[in-house]
Task: inverse folding
């Protein structure tokens, strides 16, 4: 039966590509409240097109689009899909080779903000259900949880899960993201890092001033620089007291997974135009940092004049956006509190800290049946072993939606190593999209049969 | 005779305000090459309107508008005016209460980018010559040097002075700027600080990346922060080796001037919304820092995402704009070289340093006759003593145009303590403008009579 579904997917490839383009051409920048209602409506329409009952569940922010397809035989398992319909802001616009919402196809790739993160995966999962149902009955019940605030830290998804336990209950959840590694192997992720995203703001005089005043008026940009420099040393070690206290060292089983993880260092360095990785890391050290290392990243710096040429200005204000990616069992609320104490203790009590996103890390129990299904079906669809990523360097609300509910979560998808998530020229390969649809169909099949 | 000139100025007040508005409504942002040719043409036209022979002298950048009025009696002194027709960029636009090039008059003030720096002074000087000549013959020969690149560091004015020694030769020069202090006293400046304006740029990967990569890819924003933090300590001391070596301590005569300098600390703090000055300085310490202290100022910081909300991005590049204001006898070229050595020695050899403006500090000899004339005429026009600023915290090409040519330079003008130079809502009081015209006329009169 599954071969017939695969044939159907090949026959419908043009239709599914159209769905993908339709999704990608609809801007949905949650951070800037652009196109959110339109995109939620489009997702609901596509859910209904594949036979699901769809509803938009209100939250304190953008609605969750929820879909349900209860057609499994009595006693059938329930498989949930978690995706998101929001995307990152598309700037810097000038760095894109085609407009970010044009969804242009060039050389077998589709380029768009959201192509890889996360509309390609959403479209692939919808397409798989569509094709499967054209061939026969689904062997599982399905739930779709498609939120609109993943890129702004999912501030309302925990409340959604608490308010709708019936909607998140499942025997397994296919998580939102996934990529091939540089060797072309499918990566399967069994956890996510957490996140503490904050903005630091320093205020000086109530107006920008001629920089001649710098001899006597405090410069918030200097205070920001000095404060930031206390947060992380040039050896990359975070200097906030207690930051590493809850970090769990990888278990023997996790270390074994690390050794199997493929990472093409030379190709990645060439793609990025770099001579070496951070701190000169290679091999297992490099992989361990990527998988199990918490980070503290300056995502943005802003103060005064940054246009062409010169402006001799003493800025009135300076700000930095920082993300801390956390690993089990770090707690984002604890990190936020420790950051505040750190600044206060060093004379930076005046620096405002605004939290934007506080997400727990999460790990799937290695014994979950869904893991076995996904790895077996990957072998079947791609003709080779998938690699297992114990903890994705990305983040997301896996803790409230899955771990806290006892639902095993496994993540795979249609991206590749050069998909440029969150960056200009985000893209997926159309062949990966079609293969990814087959992979979803195979997982539905396998999870229903087991 | 001078009283008749003053009467004429009062009669022509409306006309001169119109000239001022015409100048202010013409954008002339040298840093962005906006409106430069139009403004040069307007200045030439106004010079001719007051009877000067005007020409636009080409440079490697924007032309110098040069005017000459040779009508003094044989043996008469020559007085030069140095001004500039370019202005600072007007951003942040949203902080202006009226459009920056509308030259709107509200509550007796004219608001415009360039109103105080430097079009108000240029208009006042033109108006003074116009009024004087309506009453009688000028007692001095006049030269006008009106450059178009002051706000971008006067990169071509030294070459102009070298190529045209006849155009810069004079017995004294009225420099471009000037303000009342918070007590309403006219400030007369007898020197300027120098400038070394640079941009630091750090490059990482060849594209912005998802910040999940921060565990293994170097972040240029962190490197920028760490490098900047090595340049100046939290005690405000510049840590570049040799930075202070050439700083001359103030002489006894200069210290005496410092003690006479008025500075309304409480009012300035209130205007700026600050609780205290930098380092808690007050009184003479404060004035000494303002007048004789070199500075290192972050004028701009830029990296990654600085829009609303969050973007979890690892920036490809990070940059800072820095200005060093220098005091006699610091040398901007030496500071630039020392900065490069400093960065190299601390492992920041990869950081690009782009110099934008390198200007020497300059001081007028305290025995120059023009100083006596200006102070005496200020008493007459304003009815009270002017304060003397030995070294203005501002900067400009006084060294190549005056000090290196043996021409004493004295600076005074039509601004006030809240003129917001280089900042939103730049403005001058119309009464200060009219008084300033009279002051220029009085200096012409006094310098010709002496």
Result:
């Amino acid at each position: 039966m599954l071969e017939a579904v695969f044939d159907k997917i090949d026959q419908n490839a043009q239709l599914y590509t159209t769905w993908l383009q339709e999704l990608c051409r609809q801007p949905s920048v949650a951070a800037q409240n652009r196109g959110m209602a339109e995109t939620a409506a489009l997702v609901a329409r596509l859910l209904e097109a594949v036979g699901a009952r769809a509803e938009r569940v209100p939250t304190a922010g953008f609605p969750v689009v929820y879909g349900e397809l209860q057609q499994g035989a009595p006693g059938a398992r329930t498989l949930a899909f978690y995706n998101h319909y929001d995307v990152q802001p598309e700037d810097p616009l000038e760095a894109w080779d085609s407009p970010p919402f044009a969804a242009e196809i060039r050389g077998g790739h589709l380029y768009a903000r959201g192509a890889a993160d996360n509309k390609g995966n959403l479209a692939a999962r919808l397409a798989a259900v569509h094709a499967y149902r054209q061939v026969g009955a689904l062997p599982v019940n399905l739930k779709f949880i498609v939120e609109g605030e993943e890129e702004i830290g999912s501030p309302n998804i925990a409340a959604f899960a608490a308010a709708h336990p019936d909607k998140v209950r499942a025997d397994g959840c296919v998580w939102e993201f996934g990529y091939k590694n540089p060797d072309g192997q499918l990566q399967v992720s069994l956890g996510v890092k957490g996140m503490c995203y904050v903005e630091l703001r320093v205020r000086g005089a109530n107006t920008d001033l001629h920089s001649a005043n710098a001899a006597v008026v405090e410069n918030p940009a200097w205070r920001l620089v000095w404060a930031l420099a206390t947060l992380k040393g040039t050896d990359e070690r975070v200097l906030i007291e207690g930051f590493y206290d809850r970090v769990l060292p990888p278990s023997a089983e996790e270390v074994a997974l690390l050794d199997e993880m493929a990472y093409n260092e030379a190709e990645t360095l060439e793609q990025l135009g770099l001579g070496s990785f951070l701190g000169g890391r290679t091999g297992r050290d490099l992989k361990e940092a990527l998988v199990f290392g918490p980070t503290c990243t300056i995502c943005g710096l802003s103060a005064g004049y940054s246009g062409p040429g010169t402006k001799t200005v003493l800025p009135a204000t300076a700000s930095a956006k920082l993300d801390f990616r956390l690993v089990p069992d770090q707690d984002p609320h604890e990190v936020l509190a420790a950051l505040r104490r750190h600044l206060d203790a060093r004379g930076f009590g005046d620096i405002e800290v605004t939290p934007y996103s506080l997400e727990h890390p999460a790990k799937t129990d290695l014994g979950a049946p869904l893991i076995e299904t996904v790895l077996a079906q990957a072998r079947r669809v791609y003709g080779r072993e998938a690699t297992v990523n114990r903890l994705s360097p990305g983040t997301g609300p896996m803790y409230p939606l899955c771990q806290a509910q006892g639902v095993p979560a496994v993540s795979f998808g249609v991206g590749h190593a050069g998909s440029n998530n969150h960056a200009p020229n985000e893209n997926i390969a159309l062949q990966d999209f079609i293969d990814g649809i087959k992979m979803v169909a195979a997982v539905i099949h396998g999870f229903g049969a087991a």
